[in-house]
Design brief:
The chain is mainly alpha-helical and 461 residues long. The protein folds into three domains: 230 residues, no CATH class; 79 residues, no CATH class; 118 residues, no CATH class. 52% of the residues lie in helices and 8% in strands.
Length: 461
Amino acid sequence: MAGESASDIISTHQSNEPDHPRSSRKNVRTFFPGYPRKHVFCRHATLYLEYWFECGGVRDMGGMAAGLREQIALLAEANARADAAIAKILDLAHRIEAVDRASAPVLLEAAEAIGRCEQARHGQLVRVLAQAERVKAHRGGLVPWIATHLDASDGRARAIAQSARWIGDLPHLAEPLSSGRVGADTIRALTRTARTVKGTALDPVETLTAVLETTVRDGVHAAKRQVQVLEETVDPGAGEERLAKQRARSFARSTRTDSGMTRFEVLLDPARATTVQAAIDLQAADVIRRRQYDHADPAPADVRTTEQINAHAIIRMAEVFLDASAEQRGATFTAPTLYTALLEGGMVETVYGEVLPRTVAAPAGHPAAHLLEHDQDGEPVRYDGADLDDDPAARLASQAQRAALAWRDRRCTYPGCTRPPTWSLHAHHRTAHRNGGPTTMRNLTLYCSEHHTLTHHPDLK
């Protein structure tokens, strides 16, 4: 959109009801004087839709449906020609040699042409759906229809339906939406703008023009910021409310893959995402700087790409948190034993049950390594040479006992629960301490907070 002004994009030009779709080409050429001829395979398909928006089509009720179907058939023919052209482009693209520097840039011209067509189609879809909404074409509303017929997620279907409802029928946005120069992100920004100014003293045309001017001059991200400021100006406190809703939708989950790797998926509100992203960026930048200027190796040699360095940064954040004091991390817990292994053998087991090479754990004699001894029944009896049950009258389990319980029980022992020791599981007395139960390994078991509370207060739900 560089080199164009918002006045070029928003046009109040009214058609003179041309008799044939080709006569409306001048509108496209006038609207974007530099509209390249190489986009012709897309433009003809666009004009069939523009013809029906601008000239009104067949006047009688019965002929309207037939007229629409006729134009849909013409659109299908134009799409077929476009598909054939794209197939030919792809065929030629595959033949380009890596050393052919003259042809390589033309691939980007082809990508731009295809992208403009896609953007034009999206804007035209919004306009057609606005008319479908107006005449109540689907009893269940637009969202389920879009999700079912257009292979869209519920969230994307709602976004498209909202755009159709708020801006799809605005005359001054007709040409921009169909031009191919306005993308989906800009359409979403315009939708939010139209929704924000409705019912206020703000002029919608001027406000929408301002958003488009920002898009042309500074890009869509600047336009989105402008819309956020507008929303807060019109409705003070809207930003806090939106942030609270985003916080409520936040989540973090992990999934273990068949290969043994773990995939983490995190969705955060912008405020907390800023904190996490800044921590990752700072750590990643430090790795890159030290490698470049200090010739140091702060990360494994096979960690090379930006994505790999980001993953390494997340690991360092977790290590720093686990090594920090309770005051620094703002949470009181006994640091969990992450790996266990037999004295003889080449493998270790993680607290989550994965078996890994012994090299990932601290070697024997390291300050972070501890020795746990058990009897012939597998019951832990000594931790770093000291008896685990040296104070059976104690009210609470010792740190050594908690570490031993994590190795022995591996999870919350309440029937059906699988929460691991990293959930700061409680050391529960099988025979209550107040009833004379000793604080010994055989009288202790691991419960998570929820099931520990339920065990002591069974009436709670």
